[in-house]
Here is the input.
Amino acid sequence: MPSVAPTRRRPLRALARAASWHRRKLAVLAAVAAVLSGVSAAAPEGPATITVVKARSRLPGGTVVSASDLVLDRVAASDVPEGVLTDPLALVGRTLAAPVAENQMMTPLIATATRTSVSQGHVIAPLRLADSALVTLLRPGDVVDVIAADAQAEQAAVVAAGARVVTIPELPDERVGPGPEGALVLIDVDAQTASVVAHAAASATLSIIWR
Here is the structure.
């Protein structure tokens, strides 16, 4: 009588071989996954980032900022200046105190308050400083005394005490530096003081000292 045991064992061997092949395949996949996980764990994380407000394009000093002048951008947190703005609304409606470059990150020091914030009885008056190097040291919000010096009379006097610097307007593009008349600064003073400063500018050399 013929034996049936080998015939029965063949399907079992095939099943065992298939299971062994699948186990090897799964083992290979597991090894690959482990390697990839190790590479991912070993790779350093990217630098921390922050969303900041930037100038969409170059803006001259004295510009009243609108929403269309600004753009949000993500940058490395280590690259941002102190006090960088993250909300565009903090600048909208304010006046730039100095020129701003395209893509420049914005801070509160870049802009002054709106002109409507000038207190009652005060005006924003132009001040021409004979020494243009002084302008590079000025910042919006500085409080200064304006001094008129008359070389012929050999005397000097304070013509505006406690004037607040509002902004330093940008020079026209066609000029490379302040002209012989000096550098322009805008100051917040009362109307009477503005008149005195204008009168002094016609006959004296104007300078400042910081308070």
